[in-house]
Amino acid sequence: MVPSTLQRENNRRIRIRRFMNNQLLTTGAFILLVVLLLVLIGPIVTPYGPLQIDPVNRLKGPSWQHVFGTDNFGRDVFTRAVHGLRISVAVGFAVTAIASFIGMIVGLLSASYSVLDHIFMRICDGLFAFPSILLAISIMAALGPNPGNVIIALSIIFIPSMARIIRSKALVIRELTYIEALHAQGASGWRIIWIHMAPNTLSPLIIQSTFIFAVSILTEASLSFLGAGIPSPSPSLGNMLFDGKTVIYNAWWMTVFPGIFLVLVVLGLNLFGDGLRDLLDPHVSPVKRGRQRGKKTAA
Q1: For residue 79, what are the CA distances in angstroms to 89, 92, 210, 223, 238?
Q2: By Cβ atoms counted within 10 A, which residue in 154, 173, 219, 244 is the most buried?
Q3: CB atoms < 10 A from the CB of 282, how many?
Q4: Are 213 and 35 in contact, with CB atoms under 8 Å apart?
């Protein structure tokens, strides 16, 4: 019992050391922690409401009363940016969860059954034929602009990419010796898929989820900027940027501060995803990835 306890303690220390030595992962985690604190604490500490207008103080610059200034209706930009960040994170999380869950099911079934593989992959090919933002605008035009429909539209966009990644991983796992042994022992197909194959696809699933999270937040902001996402006057980083573009020379704070929030959350997710890939897939080091990118660029 003592050796096993020591071994577990050593393994825990090794994992902590690997985490702390991973600069991408720690930097991304720190940025995401700051974003999380803004989402949780920001709406509590601000004395203003996201829809509270004050025409007398419209387009006022940053001050002690309004740290991020006010917009063209006198609304506090900091309050609206924090609530917009909350909406963006909520939409990104919901889209990532739905796309990961359905994509995992589609990918595993496609790798295991050839008939379903032809059906699912042709549907994915059809969705890949359209630019993602154009497809999202088309879906939103059919469903109408509201947060629920934004989640549905973005989930439809990102399910095919997740399904293809899980399928490629599952095709490799399917050819391993222990899977063949399970078939020889008479294990059912469903047991092999969900008990033995699914857990081994979690590593690429988690890594890809961080990137889908970031891209879904950017796409939601793009839809709101174009008027097809979160409808105004509800606060969203995208429609805040849209409102600020007409007065960008006179009220730069209306675009700069929401833009900083958007850059922070996307940068944190991308850094965290890169670091997580290094941690979960140590065989592919940053040096090797750099060489691979160099070869692709030269080709």
Answers
A1: 16, 20, 26, 21, 15
A2: 154
A3: 9
A4: no
Token couple for 274: 């890169």
Q: Where are the beta strands (DSSP E) in 176-250?
A: none
Coil, helix or strand for 76? Answer: strand
Q: Which CATH superfamily is domain 45-255 in?
A: MetI-like (1.10.3720.10)
Amino acid at 266: V
Residue with tokens 């020591």: 6
What pTM value is reported for the model?
A: 0.85
> Long-range contact list for 151-157, CB < 8 A, 24+ apart?
151/91, 151/94, 151/95, 151/98, 153/223, 154/91, 154/95, 154/99, 154/216, 154/219, 154/220, 155/94, 155/95, 155/98, 155/99, 155/102, 156/127, 157/127, 157/132, 157/219
Phi, psi (deg, nearest 5) at residue 198 = -55, -45
- Tokens at 185, concatenated: 């022992």
**Rounded to an integer, what distance in angstroms lies between the CA atom of residue 228 and that of residue 239?**
10
Task: Quickly state the pLDDT bin for 295 (edges 50, 70, 90).
Answer: very low
In 3D space, the residue among 204, 205, 212 whose CA is nearest the CA of residue 93 turns out to be 212
Structure-token match 């059906």, residue found: 119
221: helix, strand or coil: helix
Q: CA 67 to CA 81: how far, in whole Å? A: 12
Q: For residue 160, is the peptide bond before it cis, meaning its omega torsion is within 30 degrees of 0?
A: no
186 and 230 Cβ atoms separated by less than 8 Å: no
